[in-house]
């Protein structure tokens, strides 16, 4: 697992955790520019980290 994949996985887990705790409209801060850029450019490039992010965002959108 690359550092970016680890950061994306961490974001996914944090989103799942917030949903389980019943939080809504949570702001996530990250220190991995590559993952932040992937979130902002979702769909422009396909990386393993981006696929993890897409899964996390898809999962979270069902509860927003």
Please specify the SSE layout and strand pairing.
Elements: H1 3-20, H2 33-40, H3 48-61
Helix pairs in contact: 1-3
Short description:
With 64 residues, the protein is mainly alpha-helical.
Describe the structure.
This is RNase H type-1 domain-containing protein. GO terms for molecular function: nucleic acid binding; RNA-DNA hybrid ribonuclease activity. Residues 1-58 form the RNase H type-1 domain. It comes from Trifolium medium. This protein is globular. The chain has one domain. The chain contains three helices and no strands. The termini are far apart. Helices cover 62% and strands 0% of the residues. The protein has helices at residues 3-20, 33-40, 48-61. α1 (3-20) runs parallel beside α3 (48-61). The protein is an all-alpha fold and 64 residues long.
């Amino acid at each position: 697992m690359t550092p970016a994949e680890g950061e994306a996985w961490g974001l996914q887990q944090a989103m799942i955790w917030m949903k389980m705790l019943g939080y809504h409209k949570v702001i996530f801060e990250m220190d991995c520019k590559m993952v932040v850029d992937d979130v902002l450019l979702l769909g422009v490039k396909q990386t393993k980290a981006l696929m993890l992010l897409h899964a996390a965002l898809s999962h979270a959108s069902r509860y927003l």
